[in-house]
Design the sequence.
């Protein structure tokens, strides 16, 4: 028995003692070939579209979206399959992607994205991972079919020619402009801009004194009482307020803004005649003369509407004010320059007036990855730095700023 145990031990620990070198080399080679073939077979099996849509999460959520796009059905009959876009073609990158995908498989197994609701909730995270990967590799998988050097720009529409020629000159990643080309874009409400953490930190340490003017670092709810129990509206980021008094964890502030004298007059704007939203009151209190005082009224010559200069005081939590609005604009300016220049050269802030910017920006922001809070700050930045507040002239074809700056 001892000899048998020793023989088995030597067979595993000292194989050359029991087995000839030629047999060992041959056996090792065969084992290696079999292992490689098994690995390659498994790799190929997981690279098939049938494998990708075999789980209900992909089959029920992503396949129906893909089937509605030109990547599934088109006049040439050339179709992109799941691995064409989501599996790198180079071997080392492919192996790395397979390892990364293990967490997605785990998420499916434990039910993290097991229902439509859960999938939609986590979709922003999944999308951002892919966007980051495409941005890092220059959208290599896209360009296996859509390479700049093979494009005939003259056959494109004029607007597309400009964008694509500029993108080709910068060797730009496709996903910068073409998010949502094969699948629906995720809801951005779950996303947030970490740059706002700096504003929150500054506001929490800001020393506030009664009688001084400050600016909102983040949007806040307005209350009628110092106990912060009776909501009366909300105030937007960057809106100016004058601090009247401070009690405990609450502070009473004064709002001095403008509103249109129509309906409830709930929306309050920062300047006469300009649709730059600074606060919104609940309709139950918007016409309450005990809360809202009308200081002046005048007609807007551009629209014929009556505008009222109004003031009101309200309570809000402490720790939401900063003494300069510039940090807010710094974040907005960086977001505008980085997000709105990937597809084309973004317009100068003073190229349009404050009332034109909302429509233009609303048409562009959907092509960016801005979250809702960032988008609101960027729009306000553009409006407050528009031609209405600029002393410089526009370029050819731009709106005439003198119509706006001439407002009384």
Sequence:
């Amino acid at each position: 028995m001892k000899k048998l145990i020793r023989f088995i031990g030597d067979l595993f620990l000292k194989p050359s003692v029991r087995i000839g070198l030629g047999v060992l080399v041959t056996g090792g080679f065969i084992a290696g070939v079999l292992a490689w073939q098994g690995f390659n077979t498994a790799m190929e099996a997981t690279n098939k579209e049938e494998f990708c849509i075999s789980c209900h999460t992909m089959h029920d959520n992503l396949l129906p979206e893909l089937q509605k796009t030109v990547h599934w059905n088109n006049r040439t009959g050339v179709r992109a399959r799941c691995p064409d876009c989501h599996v790198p073609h180079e071997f080392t990158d492919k192996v790395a992607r397979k390892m990364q995908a293990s967490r997605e498989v785990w998420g499916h197994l434990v039910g993290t994205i097991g229902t439509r609701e859960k999938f939609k909730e986590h979709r922003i995270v999944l999308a951002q991972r892919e966007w980051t990967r495409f941005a890092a590799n220059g959208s290599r998988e896209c360009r296996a079919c859509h390479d700049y050097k093979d494009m005939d720009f003259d056959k494109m529409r004029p607007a597309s020619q400009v964008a694509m020629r500029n993108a080709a000159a910068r060797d730009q990643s496709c996903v910068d402009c073409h998010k949502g080309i094969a699948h629906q874009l995720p809801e951005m409400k779950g996303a947030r801009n970490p740059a706002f953490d700096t504003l929150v930190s500054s506001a929490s340490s800001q020393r506030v004194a009664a009688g001084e003017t400050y600016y909102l670092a983040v949007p806040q709810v307005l209350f009628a009482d110092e106990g912060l129990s009776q909501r009366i509206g909300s105030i937007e980021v960057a809106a100016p307020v004058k601090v009247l008094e401070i009690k405990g964890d609450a502070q009473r502030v004064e709002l001095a803004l403008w509103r249109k004298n129509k309906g409830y007059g709930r929306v309050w704007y920062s300047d006469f005649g300009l649709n730059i939203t600074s606060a919104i009151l609940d309709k139950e209190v918007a016409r309450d003369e005990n809360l809202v005082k009308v200081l002046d009224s005048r007609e807007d010559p551009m629209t014929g509407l009556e505008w009222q200069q109004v003031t009101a005081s309200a309570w809000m939590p402490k720790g939401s004010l900063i003494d300069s609005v510039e940090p807010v604009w710094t974040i907005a300016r960086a977001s505008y320059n980085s997000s709105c220049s990937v597809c084309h050269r973004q317009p100068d802030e003073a190229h349009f007036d404050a009332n034109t910017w909302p429509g233009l920006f609303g048409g562009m922001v959907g092509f960016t990855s801005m979250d809702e809070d960032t988008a609101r700050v960027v729009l306000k930045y553009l409006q407050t730095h528009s031609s209405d507040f600029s002393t410089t002239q526009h370029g050819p074809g731009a709106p005439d700023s003198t119509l706006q700056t001439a407002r009384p």
In short: Residues 326-405 form a domain with the Cytochrome Bc1 Complex; Chain D, domain 2 fold (CATH 1.10.760).
